[in-house]
Amino acid sequence: MARLNNHPAFPVNAFSGDGKIPSVKPNSGMAIRDWFAGMALQGLLAGIFKDNLSADTAAKRAYEIATAMLVERDTLEK
């Protein structure tokens, strides 16, 4: 399987801080796969199958959906 493009979901520019706010490294932030999984999990838990999902199953399914989204996105970019 090709390596997935899992860049940060909310990258930030480098910021050196000002004494009150600590420095921030460039491109720090949540990975896009984690963001996709969180969005998928919301849908799973709000959906009609929510009562049939254990927490482990819901989390696993959310990441399966997130990975499929990254694969599809990489396919469309070619």
3D architecture notes:
This protein has 78 residues and is mostly helical. It is built from two helices and no strands. Helix 1 (32-46) crosses helix 2. The mean pLDDT is 82.
Helix content: 40-55%
What is the chain-wise order of helices and strands? HH
Distance between the termini: 15 Å
Instruction: Decide which structural class fits the backbone.
Output: mainly alpha
Q: How are the SSEs ordered, and which strands pair?
A:
Blueprint: H1 32-46, H2 55-76
Helix pairs in contact: 1-2
Q: What would a concise description of this structure say?
A:
With 78 residues, this protein is an all-alpha fold. The chain contains 2 helices and no strands.
Key words describing this protein structure:
2 helices, 78 residues, mainly alpha, flat
